[in-house]
Amino acid sequence: MKDAIYGGVNAAVLTAMGPDLSPDLNRMAAHARWLLANGCNGLGVLGTTGEANSFGLHERKQILEGLIARGIPAARMMPGTGCASLTDSVELTKHARDAGCPGVLMLPPFYYKNPSDDGLFAYFSEVVNRVGGGVMIYLYHFPQQSAVPFSLDLIGRLLKAFPGVIKGVKDSSGDYANMQAMVRAFAKDGFEVYSGSDEFLQQILAEGGAGCITAASNANSHWGGIVYAKRTGPEADAAQAMLTATRRAATSVPLIPGLREIIARSTGDAGWRVIRPPHLPLTQEQAEKVWAAWSAAGAIPLPGLAPAKAAE
Length: 312
What we know:
CATH class: Alpha Beta
CATH topology: TIM Barrel
Largest sheet: 7 strands, parallel
Number of domains: 1
Number of strands: 7
CATH architecture: Alpha-Beta Barrel
Strand content: 5-15%
Order of helices and strands: EHEHHEHEHHEHEHEHHHH
Structural class: alpha/beta
CATH superfamily: Aldolase class I
Distance between the termini: 44 Å
Radius of gyration: 18 Å
Number of helices: 12
């Protein structure tokens, strides 16, 4: 897809925290700069991997403002703004718009299960009308986590009602057929489809999708950048194989603490292991497992980082 706003590789950025579980904006901004210098076209901040729903409204604003103040371009960020509360979703979306972000990633209202498409259409209509324009909304399809999927019919209705506002989707379902159906149904209208699974990047690009927004990009974005730049050929195929291998390595343990472990060992910064409950750091056995899996894939040391140090 040409001219996609976030076209390419977008990391679902980990949120760094201090010992008291408050956001560590200096550490997070440094990581964001490394991502942008090592294969990432954009940054999905405050998503699932960033533990957004473990942070309060004011903390989420503080994180976005803090990254911008530390030189991370607002134009390269897609903040997550979807909440169970309608008014919180509106407030965070306006905040992202006013900060200069071109788009936001929005979960459906996820507390009440099995809402109808009519109910979801009403919710997103309220959000769009209350925000009042100036920012594009990307739908976050992650039914395993939210238990509230976006049907093709609902997406079509939203696109018809709000052209140019409902701009794309992140599909974290792991169902390539669903991603493919979204591209075939809506990409012709400029709808940007992003895979939430690294293993589908090359396929979705060939299909006409816009790229990916993935957790493992926190550590494998170097190879994602090669796939996005090359698309086909031996170098792209090898890079895609690395994306697939590292994704499988990342999911061999609980994903978010596993990625924190990889970054902690790769940087020698144990602070990356700090995580908000109900998530927990990995056990020593899990930590060794995920490190061994990334090493076996050939992804250690991470390109652009200092040589890996021993675990602390």
